[in-house]
Write a structure and sequence with these properties.
Shape: globular
Distance between the termini: 31 Å
CATH architecture of the largest domain: Alpha-Beta Complex
Largest sheet: 9 strands, mixed
Helix content: 40-55%
Number of domains: 2
Number of helices: 11
Number of strands: 9
CATH superfamily of the largest domain: Spore Coat Polysaccharide Biosynthesis Protein SpsA, Chain A
Structural class: alpha/beta
Radius of gyration: 19 Å
Length: 285
């Protein structure tokens, strides 16, 4: 096994970045290189990165000037600093957020799953988030790999052409991978701790709106979205959350926005969703 390259885009993460650095440096299998991109931070993030890079020569810092709003997930800067030459002769690319921490065996456990399943293209940990009763597991379909911790085989990463930049990127990549015959999995026995709850940066209601916009970019079918909204109406924020979900989704149609997902991926996603709605066997489970 030839190892892996890790990459992390961060902005204003002085609170949580030290925890990620501690997690990465404690791994039983360390990266050959870890590219950390300070995407226009105004706090001590840049200094924290430089201090770590002075100790560990495999940490590669990059600092960008502030450019205002970022594309969702930071994928635009990730692909800027992740050309083929950055991970040539390595087996994996690990994309990880700056507000994550995990145990020393996380990378070893995920890499072991690729040995078990030769078709595995993307793997991720199960996310744990803080709640009033301690850490709680964030439920997700088994095929969905959370963007906060994604391990790609180099073969899969190249096959899907890298990462898209914008809302829905972390579903488009796995849909594309499945369409090409790879499997994608999140693993319950591999856990990562997400210190900023999902949507915590934008608020719950704005998060629902963003989820709807993301669904449009991925290419979800209107029928599937209506079913999803109906199911979400039973969860807080009741009804309003579902209305915002649909508003974000149909906004794309009203504005005639081009989709982020390629047409062939949209076709694949909708085919899987139709099978789900018909209670037939589907990869979208």
């Amino acid at each position: 096994m030839n190892g892996y390259t890790a990459i992390t885009p961060v902005r204003d993460e002085e609170r949580f970045l030290p925890g990620l650095i501690e997690s990465m440096t404690a791994q039983t299998i360390r990266p050959r290189s870890w590219i950390v991109i300070d995407d226009g931070s105004t706090d001590a993030t840049g200094r924290i990165i430089e201090q770590a890079a002075a100790i560990y020569d495999w940490i590669v810092p990059h600092h960008l000037d502030s450019r205002g709003a970022r594309a969702a997930g930071g994928e635009s800067v990730i692909m800027r600093f992740l050309p083929r030459s950055a991970w040539r002769n390595q087996d994996f690319i690990f994309r990880v957020d700056g507000d994550i921490s995990f145990e020393p065996g996380l990378m070893e456990s995920l890499m072991h799953e690729f040995e078990r399943d030769k078709r595995l293209g993307i793997a991720s940990a199960t996310l744990m988030e803080p709640s009033n009763n301690g850490w709680r597991e964030v439920p997700t379909p088994s095929f969905h790999t959370r963007g906060a911790t994604k391990l790609y085989s180099a073969v899969c990463f190249e096959a899907i052409g890298g990462l898209k930049s914008g809302l829905g990127w972390d579903t488009i990549d796995e849909a594309h991978a499945m369409m090409l015959g790879f499997t994608t999995r999140s693993f319950a026995h591999v856990r990562a701790y997400h210190h900023r709850p999902q949507g915590g940066g934008v608020g719950l209601l704005r998060g629902r709106l963003a989820t709807g916009r993301s669904a449009y970019q991925i290419g979800y079918s209107p029928m599937f979205m209506m079913a999803r909204a109906a199911r979400r109406s039973l969860k807080e924020p009741y009804v309003l959350g579902s209305l915002l979900l649909l508003a974000g989704y149909f906004e794309g149609y009203l504005r005639r926005q081009p989709r982020l997902a390629p047409p062939e991926v949209v076709k694949f996603v909708r085919a899987q969703q139709r099978r789900r709605l018909m209670l037939a066997k589907s990869l979208w489970r």
